[in-house]
Amino acid sequence: MSAKYDNYKDKKVISIGTMSEITGLSERQIRYYEERKLIFPHRTKKGTRKYSFNDVERLMEIAEKIEEGVQTFEIRKEMLKKDKEIRDNMIRGQLNARFGIPKSPYDK
């Protein structure tokens, strides 16, 4: 795939109505998850929410967890932990690439 198509999943182009149709969640549920800081739509100058395909995936994960009985604050805590792990791995990778520092003491 060419570089110009690599970030299509990040582009915020989906309206809340379409997002509701894709995920099966109500617009009210989607707004609630935004209030709980589980999802972060882009806002146009007129205030319209726009979502990405990555947001679709995230909402589906959230809906599954809610169905399993997981509370929104627990989901947020897990998301923050996951984001931190991703950042830490990226930093370790950059350090390794730049200075040859292994990811862990057990890496060779």
From TrEMBL:
Q: What is this protein called?
A: DNA-binding transcriptional MerR regulator
Alphabetic keyword roster: DNA-binding, Repressor, Transcription, Transcription regulation
HTH merR-type domain: which residues? 13-82
* InterPro entries linked to this entry: DNA-bd_dom_put_sf (IPR009061), MerR-type_HTH_dom (IPR000551), MerR_fam (IPR047057)
Q: Which Pfam families match?
A: MerR_1
Species name: Aeribacillus alveayuensis
Question: One GO molecular-function annotation for this sequence?
Answer: DNA binding
